[in-house]
Fold these 3 entries.
Entry 1:
Amino acid sequence: MNKRIFQVSLTAALAGFLFGFDTVVISGANQPIKELWETNWFLGDSIFTFHGIFIMSMALWGTVLGSLFGGIPCDKLGRKKTLLWIGILYFISAMGSALAPEAYSFSFFRFIGGVGVGASSVAAPIYISEISSADNRGRLTAMYQFNIVFGILIAFISNYLIGLLFGGETAWRWMLGIEALPALIYIFLVVKIPNSPRWLSLRGKEDAVVLEALTMLGINTDEAKNRLKQIKTALVEKAASSKEKLFSGAYNKPLVLAFLLAFFNQLSGINFVLYYAPEILEKAGLATGESLFSSIAIGVVNLIFTFVGIALIDRLGRKQLMYIGSIGYILSLAMVGWCFYASANSMLLLVFVLVFIASHAVGQGAVIWVFISEIFPNKVRAYGQSWGTGTHWVFAALITLLTPTFLDGEIGIFRDNPWPIFIFFSFMMVLQLLFVIFMMPETKGVSLEELAKKLSSRKKK
């Protein structure tokens, strides 16, 4: 593998580290903020709680915005500049959330961080997929997912250690504020990466500029000229459709595939478990300290099996990993539901939660960002990525918003026993398995240009 491309891909993928950290760090601040600002009450006669909307899910609504509109700066400013601004948003969010004097300003800064998360889930996978080749694209793009789960693990560890070092009302502020440090490091690193050669060509830049970007990726002159020829050929073939939009009808197949993959990703319950891990484990019978420490186990298993997914994604392929993950989801979620229903041993329940996390890491976790970044043609890739990630984050926000309504110990519908929630998620994974069997294509080892031809609905003249 080209060493320089690996280094550049890793730098871009560090946006995923901040994504993972920012997404999960709120789990440690959940209960303290609920008590400090007394946010646990229903809004009028609705099923929504103030805590669910303004504390737990506000970042996710920012993520929805960032993912739906992230394709615009990706196309207009470029992938690199978008990644730079993402780092700035993370930094502002971390500092603002840590220093927030009350719930509304806290929500505002969490929203800003969410915009960064959403935009990064568009920009980083696109950038990495565009600088890599067909034989290593899966592994390199999956590094983004690796960094997400690494960020999740570090957030769990950080929350645990800060909880030990600081007490009272200050611990949660340190938990959120510490993210400013990696955000600052990321900003300095991303300045040094080159622009995407495919984006430069798409914007009509001179061949010399595109070749320079390719050589900055460590590609020799002859190979760089060959890559440039392939990129230009693909753009010429798409020139006839330059006026077509994402929803013109030509891209129905990738649109449906991206929607369903993102939909099932969230209907697995993964964000439900990650966001509310301490609360779920407390309901299983673990003490507060034990539940925070067990959250670290979730992060470790997630990281280990993400390594497995990355190692296998270009060998077994995307579809085979989804088979493995789907079956693991179905069994583990059903068993977690049974453990709650039968009041089984809390450690047995934790084991099945960890099996669930492993299934996600090998399957959906490793596949989603790779697959969505592959299936759309060059001309609409940024907007197609926004469509897929936007779908992902809309459902993530809805699930996180509704969780207090069902899970909260005082006002939740299933406050006594949450077993129906896990049975519901298990059933949804049966539907995902059917999607994988009958609809999902294999994209392993196929160039982006070839995939565009295969998945286009356009009639050839």
Entry 2:
Amino acid sequence: MPIPEVDRILGMHTYATETEGLGGVIKESADDFVVEEMLVDGSKASVTGAVPSRAIGSSAQKQRFLLCLMIKRNWDTFIATKNVAKALGIDQGRVQFAGIKDARAVTAQHITIENVPAEDAAKIDIKNVKVTPIGYIREMLSLFYLLGNNFTITATKVDAPESVVQERVQQTIQELNAIGGIPNYFGHQRFGTTRPVTHLVGRALSQGRFEDAAMLFLANPGPYEHPQSRQVRQQLQDAHDFKWAAENYPSQLRFERMMLMHLAEHPTDYVGAFRRLPEKLLALFVQAHQSYLFNRFLSERLKLGLPLNEAVVGDFVVGVERSGLPLTTMEKAVTDANLAQVNASVKAGKMRVALPIYGFRQRLSGGVMGEMEREVLNSESVNDGPVRLNELSRVGGKGGLRTALAPVKDFKLLSTADAKLQVSFMLFRGCYATILLREIIKPQNPATSGF
């Protein structure tokens, strides 16, 4: 089955299912992609605005942190919380969330606001952002509290009869259920589909090729970005004139402009230019490269025919909480001696097979999987010895483990009428809804299909 070029660029070289794709477009409208956050205590953020009672122990008694429901439409999570802070006249760091939600979507999530009374939060007035106080809690919100997300997604322009759509969706889900879920790829939005270069920038940073990294980020035009952006990037690539670029790059390329302002004055100080960026963005570059390598590892495992729901000697396995969340810090290496015991635990849902997110604190697998991982690193010109850090790659590059499978909970086929496909399901935190949709739709061009 042909794999789109952009998927290959992002390390996704195969599918887990053999069904024919349905085609279609996701996110044609923000209303087509609805995300509702679930916390570890079962509290659900609803786009209806219904306020959960006593979410994570909240109460009316005033404490340091105010827990709120935030519903947004067509807003990036970081920019939305920045505007919430601005509306309250406080530092952005005092507004925290458990997880990043899709920008082109309607999303409901929890946030905490530090040392702000409920009556002030209730007065926030931002277009397409609604903040509703729930109650006060002792600690600020963090990833620790996030269980996962419920998705209700509509694909439009599905070119197949209803009976065919229903049959293919059911068959795809049956194939995924047989292996225990979807391949736990890092999805398209981890890298960007209009200009998928974040992982390439990260690789160059990790290898100390700072000029290459800067030019990839600043001057590598993407085929699906705005024509003006493509034009100025190409001009910089051809002329290498940072002063001209600093004056002519459009305002929406604000991170590029930060670097260009520095390079206009210091044209060879690429490290200094990258240091003008927020540390979280620097970390994102390095982590995107690690995510790409993980996708390659997972693709090669699938191509080798190694199971995702059964361990082989040399694999890592991790524990699973009662909630279903993986405990990636509780790892075990699989040996001949413990193989049967480990696979009994995997079958019982108490453990899951995991692959390395390669970094300075994470070693490769052993056995056949380890050999394949080394081949991938060699093909990517990545040293498989101890990871050497430089002044930029030390940000966000520690690595870790990630499960090979992501269970899909509560899948429902809601509608197949009017050339549309509407489904709902729940995924645990860190897993990508677009990877499930990729198996169902199998888009010829993910960028133009909304991925």
Entry 3:
Amino acid sequence: MIRSCCLAGLAILAGLSSATAQRSTITRDAFRSRADSLVFTYLAESHAPSASFAVIRGSDTLAYGAHGLANVDVWRAPTATTIYEIGSITKQFTSAAIMKLVEQGRVKLDDDLSKYVPQFPLQGKKVSIRQLLNHTSGIHSYTSSPGWAKTWNDELSPDAIVKFVAADTFDFAPGTAYRYNNTGYVLLGMVIEKASGRKYANFLDAQFFKPLGLRQSSYCRSKTSDPAFALGYSKGPSGPVRAPFLDLSHPFSAGALCSTVGDFAKWQRALDAGMVVSPASYTLMSTADSLNSGRKINYGFGLVPGMFNGHKTVSHTGGINGFATAATYVADDSLSVVVFTNFDGESPQTLAQNLLRVAYGVAPVGRGTAAAQAVAPSLSTADRDAIVGNYTLQLPGGQPLPIKFFLDGIRLMAQAQGQPANEMRYLGNYAFGVAFDPELRFTFTVDAGKATKVVLLQGGARVDGPRVP
């Protein structure tokens, strides 16, 4: 089974915004006991081996620690300085690198990709650097390619990675729709290498990691016995098992970085303080961008803008073989919330959201529960069982994307091939939403007690998915 290997990047879209922004005033002692309780609950319910966490407000460290096991086999406990693979949180480092090159005059946001990566076939289309940054290029994501998983053990060049989809029809015309896309960020890494004349990893080390003192952040090693690193796990039939191996040449600039929660909190603050890129560049990164039509999308450049309790936030999550991460930053209170786990079976998104809520005196929510939602309609056992099964989404470019709907205890989950599992929230009339994207909808057609197809609505696009017999 393909597990959550593929660099998912979903936002912590916490609700309860208000016209008057409430400041975070909770004391360190009051917060820490509640944070520990939330982390222990997450570990118990998800069966994740460990979680490392940092919640820092200004100069006040509200919570900073780790619980569980970084290595299950030898019962090695993690610390706040344990290093985790961070998956798609990597994308903000890549977008910052592009913006650094823009500031240096070596790249322009409206430049065509062919200027830097002429070997990638654009099929007569124009794809700008901006469209790669905000996931509106229409280029197909290689992590959805059926043949990709067969090569996980192989070390591949960026050219070999993007070749998986080089001949694929575009999912849509560039700039006309939004679809989260890992190929685009691999191509951005190739742009960085071409424009800077340096390897991606070396460029980040010289421009960001060393100047900012991020001593435990780097391009991940594919294999390591260093006890400073957590080992990655997936969900097994009777508990966590070692995650399938993925050579870390594959995620490249879309998701191959490693870090600690402390380093990442320092990175968030440096971004906001103008120490990474200029304030103008960071505004572009952290502001919702637009399609050609002017319609807003819920993504900037490697960051997801949002609101919580009247405050602007920037967030991202990550998922890669054996690891899942979630982080958000509230500039008004210089508040960092960072959670890293060595488990790809369940995102720590709700845990991070709850740490944020408690920091503002708001009650935490249950697993997969959207904030402040009304009482949800009930889903009968018969209707739930009618939906469970395998389907194939027919993407606009003609590519099939397998997706399964399954039960995790009593929770109904959705998992597309190469993506993490997410709990679905029943909305009535066989329609479901998910916590990370309030506009996404799965709607099922049920005939004679069995669902025959699912329709996915996301980003203005409709995708049909017949049931696989």
